[in-house]
Predict the structure of NAD(P)-dependent oxidoreductase.
Amino acid sequence: MNNMVSDYPKGAPAQEQTHQPGDQDAMYPAPEIIKASHKGSGKLDGKVALISGGDSGIGRSTAVLFAREGADVAIIYLDENDDAAQTKKLVEHEGRRCLTIQQDVGDNDGVKKAVEQVIQQLGKINILVNNAGVQYPQEDLTDIDNEQLERTFKTNIFGMFNITRAVLPHMQEGDSIINTTSITSYQGHDQLIDYASTKGAITTFTRSLSTNLMKQQRGIRVNGVAPGPIWTPLIPSSFDAEQVAKFGKDTPMGRMGQPSEVAPAYLFLASDDASYITGQIIHVNGGSIVNG
């Protein structure tokens, strides 16, 4: 699972994938899923988490870490069946239940059915991690056609609305929603104009929903994580081999991050350690200061 990571301490060899959002099994080196040094301490005992995009990358790492801390996990994924099966295996290895559901988050009716399935099989949802996303680099704004624009927004932000609306009626005081935004929400990206725009919307959605739920006095916290360059299947499936070989080397730390280095931020926000935190974004980006 973690072999080969140390062979490329700062980056990855040139590689590409042709299908979004990408397959983790085809990546080399394999992304690091969880730090061997992490010893579970029951921070999420008795909890159930639903993670969109939980089949690979940050979603998989978060699923496995949550399981190590005592949570049962459900994941929603697009069509990466092999990756989803591997995530299920890793979660079950931690002694927890894992429900895998193939579902496009942009399909509102399908999402409702998926949430009902989680409730029926796992009994509840205490933690929602909105993590599913796609990106399609283009050199010029005029190269972003309506089909791409709609797909990016439908997955990245409409999907977040769809899942959150379906899950909220099942959540109770003390439960938590965590949204994956991005450093591009704060810095922009010249080749990811539509993607960065959705991430800006996600940041605002996070802040607005947190305020809304506080005013309703429901006791549900809403926060976000803004990763920088993290080694996930989205990278080789988005950029050409030359760009992949340089990925993350322009950060202050001089390297890309691993999913295992992002997942603890989700764990913190999901746990009672973050009981006085809502409406905030944690930046896991290798040292870039964004002041957001």
Remarks:
- The chain has one domain: 45-284.
- The chain has eight helices and seven strands.
- The CA atoms of residues 1 and 231 lie 14 Å apart.
